[in-house]
Amino acid sequence: MMARVRIVHYLNQFFAGVGGEAKAGHPVSARPGPLGPGTLLQKLVGDAGEVALTVYSGDNHFAEKTEDAVRDALRFIEEAKPHVVVAGPAFNAGRYGTACAVLCRRVQAELGIPAVTAMFRENPGFEMCRAAVPVVPTGEDVTGMAAAMPIVARLALKLGRGEPLGRPEEDGYAPRGQRRNEVDERTGAQRAVAMLLDKLEGRPFVSEIPVPDFGLVVPAPPIGDLSHAKIAMVTTGGVVPHGNPDGIESRRATRWGKYSIAGLDRLDAEKWTSVHGGFDTQFIQGTPDRQLPLDILRDLEREGVIGGVHEFFYSTVGAGGPVHRARGFGQEIAADLKASGVQAVIFTST
Amino acid sequence: MLHLALGTPRIVLGKAVGHVLGDPELSPERERSFRRVLVEKALEAIRTPVTSPTLFSAE
Asked: What are the CA-CA distances from residue B8 to residues A175, A220, B45 (Å)?
């Protein structure tokens, strides 16, 4: 018979039964056997596993003295010699979820013991550990316990026995963003045609390459009167002064630049160019206004159609860069635009 | 079209990847008029309430 899987379970002070917010400063402690939700976990793993120890900490203690808390928790866990560590479920409790995420990562990295946790998708701990630790998505509050714990229990047994996990949708954890090679008897062409036929016939099918989710941009309200609005230009077309003073890369740019156009009537080809490496830039080099229409905006400014043109434009190269970095550029540039009193942006991509 | 899928709220369709707000086939004067039409279309987009990705056509 297979050896029982030894489990250490991590809880916050509330679920451990110590108390509510008044006890949130409680230091890291441990008790043999299951506590609170751990009794359900024990029931679910049955004879196949044993919740040998429960480690618990006050939410504030873990958040405020994280290094101390992790060190103490790791010491308790190491002494118990578990095959797997289970943390939570934390549902939508932010401090608790963050503690579960931090502890699971450290358990895996420093003790070499697999860990699994569970929480609501919007808990800040979720994204903190999703790529490194299997996280079971749960409901927002404790009413999601009954649905989540059987999945956690099954994962804990698998991890504790050193068995490989199935796909996220099979085993009930959140996608970690990993790709694993598989051998399929059918060629890519055969699978693609089969998928197309399923789609045409209205049958369910699963894409092998999920389309990334870029999130939802809520449209800004319109501006009624542009004659008092300051308009700025932003581009991913790589327009920079000759010599590229900020060294913006032609592909996979790691930075953006901000360049003054005060007093200029148009973008002169003698002064401006494009360092974009993803398309033929000869037409921008000939007439940079084709990418940043300063000539037209100056006309409209003189005619009083718009209030003014912001004295800087912002530029980077949009070619092959990761989305998270582009999002960071956007946030930085937007903060600068807001601080400068800009009301609207003409953003030219390529 | 990519921008509609990506969720950009207000979109004006440019001429081409290499010359979004220009057309090297045109004389400099006519090209400038063409650019002005596109920029005015962008300003119209800024003045227009939208609730989802919307394409403003200058055609």
From this structure: 26, 11, 12
Residue-wise pLDDT tens digits, A171-188: 999 999 888 888 999 999
Nearest-10 crossing angle of helices A294-302, B28-47: 70
The tokens for A16 are 């451990």
pLDDT tens for each residue of B4-54:
767 789 999 999 889 999 999 999 999 999 999 999 999 999 999 999 899
The Cα-based distances of A46 to A41, A77, A153, A209, B27 in angstroms read 8, 21, 10, 38, 81
Nearest residue to A241 via CA among A253, A227, A217, A258: A258
Confirm if A84 and A38 have CB atoms less than 8 A apart: no
- Tens digits of residue pLDDT in A94-117: 999 999 999 999 999 999 999 999
Phi, psi dihedral angles at A239 (to 5 degrees): -75, 125
Measure Cα distances from A327 to A126, A212, A312 in Å: 19, 14, 20
User: From the list A215, A219, A229, which residue is nearest B51 (CB)?
Assistant: A219
This prediction has a pTM of: 0.59
ipTM of the complex: 0.94
Between CA A177 and CA A181, with CA A179 as vertex, the angle to 5 degrees is 170
* Chain B residues in contact with A348 (beta carbon < 8 A): 14, 20-21
Q: Name the least confident of A261-270, A276-285, A337-346.
A: A276-285
Residue of B20, B43, B46 lying closest to A290 (CB–CB): B20
